[in-house]
Amino acid sequence: RWLFDQAVCTLYAFCGVLFGLCSLASLTVLSTVCCLKVCYPAYGRCWDGHAAVLLLGVWAYALAFATAPLAQWGSYGPEPYGTACCITWEASSREATLYILSLFIFCYVLPCLLIVVSYARMLWTVRVSRRAVRQH
């Protein structure tokens, strides 16, 4: 069972969500920038020196979704087995359902889709470049 009070449970869940979202958002930004640099070098150069802005955007994005349950859009609570805390997945209200749905779409589906598309585009560019080199 969870050994601490609700405040520690909320802090634990908040940190888990924040750092998890930040990690996936960082990987998404990294794959997108790599794709721009490999596939579209002219556009890729415009992001040189903007790492701080991108990191700030990643943290702001993750922070927005992680603080939503603190603002009563969704909630944090014990996991079903009661040994840790996370987002309360069993939505009890329409707002909680909307939070879980938006979290799924904007923090899982879209980032994963961007990562897959970025790497697929890079692989395609490398394949086409390899063919062009072989022809010459």
TrEMBL record:
Residues 1-136 form the G-protein coupled receptors family 1 profile domain. Gene3D superfamilies: Rhodopsin 7-helix transmembrane proteins. The chain crosses the membrane at residues 12-39, 51-71, 98-120. GO terms for cellular component: membrane. InterPro entries: GPCR_opsins, GPCR_Rhodpsn, GPCR_Rhodpsn_7TM. It is a multi-pass membrane protein. Keywords: G-protein coupled receptor, Membrane, Receptor, Transducer, Transmembrane, Transmembrane helix. Its main location: membrane. GO terms for molecular function: G protein-coupled receptor activity. It is found in: Membrane. It comes from the Eukaryota. The keyword Flavoprotein does not apply. This is OPN5 protein. It comes from Chaetorhynchus papuensis (pygmy drongo).
